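Structure tokens please, single chain.
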Amino acid sequence: MVGEGCAGRILTNQYGFSNFNILTTKLKKNKEPDRNENYYDRWFVIQAVDDDKSLSKISPFAVDKALKCAVETVKSIKCLRNEDLLVEVGSASQSRSLNKINNLAGCLVTASPHRNLNTCKGVIRCRALIDCPKDEILEELKSQGVTDIYYILT
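Here you go.
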């Protein structure tokens, strides 16, 4: 596995080779519900729409109850420095529900996937892939959640 909490597994020794060609891949959780259920956005940022009604001014108990009503029990809720909420979900259905939320304890909010926490990067070393086109590699690894590939030239 590329790293704990990453989007999926990448076989580094698929053809029995290693330490030759280096490819960098960027893995991203799936945003499309019709693809694999293993890939979904796990981290969301919830922001208040109005600057007058900050989420930090709402009772943490009210926020917890509102999130439980909307998406059931989530893994974690943290308050960020800018008074937004960072929410970690545990399932694809919770991810879809949280993505649609627009009201939290009487406060208008927007929920969006976190830009960095839903991705991870990994490295593939494989001599057999040295002559494969980038598009073909990307298409074959798409089922594992790979969204982009970069060649490292030395």
